[in-house]
Fold this sequence. Notes:
The complex is a heterodimer. Chain A is an alpha/beta fold. Chain A has ten helices and 13 strands. Chain B has one domain: Rossmann fold (3-Layer(aba) Sandwich), CATH 3.40.50.300. Chain B has helices spanning about 25-30, 65-70, 95-100, 120-130, 135-150, 155-160, 170-180, 200-215, 225-235, 250-255, 260-270, 310-315; strands spanning about 10-20, 35-50, 50-55, 80-85, 85, 105, 185-190, 220-225, 235-240, 245-250, 320-325, 330. In chain B, the strands form two sheets. An eight-stranded mixed sheet of chain B has the order 6-7-8-3-9-10-12-11, with helices on both faces. Chain B has a four-stranded antiparallel sheet with strand order 2-1-4-5, with helices on one face. The mean pLDDT of chain B is about 90.
Amino acid sequence: MDKLLEVKNLKLYYHTVAGAVRALDDVSFDLKKGETLGLVGESGCGKTTTGVALLKMPSPPGRIEEGSQIILDGRDIMTLSEKEIRKNVRWEEVSMVFQGAMNCLTPVYTIGKQMLETLQEHRDMDRKQAVDLITEYLGLVGLPPEVMGRYPHEMSGGMKQRIVIATALFLKPKLVILDEPTTALDVIVQAQIINLLKKLKKTFDLSFIFITHDLSLEAEVSDRICVMYAGKIAELGTNGQIYGAQGPMHPYTEKLLQATPLLRKKVDSLSYIPGTPPDLIDPPKGCRFHPRCHKVMDKCSREEPPLLEIEPGHMVACWRCGK
Amino acid sequence: MSIDKNDVILEIKDLKKHFAPHQSLAQTLTGKNRKVVKAVDGISFAIRRGEIFGLIGESGSGKTTTGKLVMKLIDPTSGTIEFNGEDVTKTDKERTKAYRRQVQMIFQDPYASMNPRFKIKDVLEEPLIIHKIPGGHVEHEEMIVKALTEVKLNPPEEFMGRYPHMLSGGQRQRVATARTLILNPLMLVADEPVSMIDLSTRAEILHMMKDVQRDLGLTYLYITHDLSTARYFTDRIAVMYLGRIVEMGDADDVIDHPLHPYTKALIDAVPEPETGKVDVIKELPISGEIPSPANIPPGCRFHTRCPYAKPECSAEAEPELIDVGNGHYQACRRYKEI
């Protein structure tokens, strides 16, 4: 399969008074056309920051550092000017559904006006054409055209999320980044939205980056899973490698899975990871996970483990693996 | 009910909470009534001493309103609440305060439920002052140390001097639990206590709450939308839909052998960490979303979304919650056929 996206040595630091917060520190991965890549990890591990970096819009004082490459469809967008990004990349080729976006719809405008504004900002269309296009997209996400006349408060969470998804697809992007798109929704609505996303992906031949902290949900959505910890990739593998019988290889992934409560099986005791993710101004030496790791060795606190391919398509950054 | 009276700590009977929306003078004069929001619409259940009872439901099911009613933060429209054999539905100010000492609440958001200008010591001393617990600073400090030890914040002296922003989400929820324990309550109402906590520490908090419950012989009312944590954490659950309980029983029994079509649909929709589901479009037996509690469908209130609904489901009276054996209750008239 062709590669749609290649991220190489991506570094994004927030330059604060206290020092540089290394939110993303040397992250590399790729994404094939038509693939869904899942990003998982605790809060503060760099999942959302990765999404924002791919749109090249880190929030200040964040900065994408020298030497980072984001190659989209064969072109390194890091070399493009902000003007070019705005004209040709952001929302045009890569769009993002932000976490809680459905609660950010303006309460004072109707849905139709908000969608129209977004569309006309980017496309030279008269009102009639724009309304037709909006109607078409509303249909695709399962909403009747009447919702254009409604205000956000008149709609349920699931409906608002559908609106946000439709808006993210307007400009026919190739890559859509979905940041916790179902977190605030009830489980039945969540399942409906996931089904919708799977259908839209086929219809438009899209690629997804699906960000969530919920490993159960990620298992149902993503072809490959990228587990992040403290601004780095801990493990990256196919759905089968992470969730299959063999199980994950990185102790962090292993613990995250063991901490996930299961519905269909009675578990006597869930495990958990003591402590919290580290301060990224001054992360622990060696492996960043070593202070919380149950399989820690001497070497772990001294040297940082490289991300190595342990088996085809399965990358792990742990001294315990490979050899 | 098959539960022994003496075992029951809290008994709710036919509890209702209807919210009447604000009416303009014109509406009153023309007699045009706006619809009443029936948030809780006739629920009954009993919680045994020392058990963890889970109240499960989607948003709009009335689970949080039920929690508020149990805490006596709002007054019911009708029905009764009995605590330790005593009717506490209508109580004066003094009695309410005494009741709240015995029934304490843990809130969802550990970030918003603490005064950021208070040190942890002050956060924990506040309930002692409010409830006029006798003792000076020294005695109070002893109680604070004891409560912090119970939730395993060690060493307690170190935590007492910290401010909430210096703690992680998990530690804050421990402090929130300690704040309830300091009054030696009999029962805790916990409304989504772990939904804002990272997955890695969620289990840690549930563990801690379970330990505290066993050590002190407490009773919990655990309110959540998350069936997976409920299975792990609770002894019995009640599933709510649009202000009514549709199914209730032993947590394992209800989740492994659900009888009501709504419970079945909820369980089917929950994802599990297993491989091989990426290309699958999940079959969802029920479509749409929960209707507005201001406009409850007639007959069985689930019939508008039920895949098994027959004409009698909307035409006949609302089905009651019936005992099908083993303390398993459900409210579908066709449960045997489906």
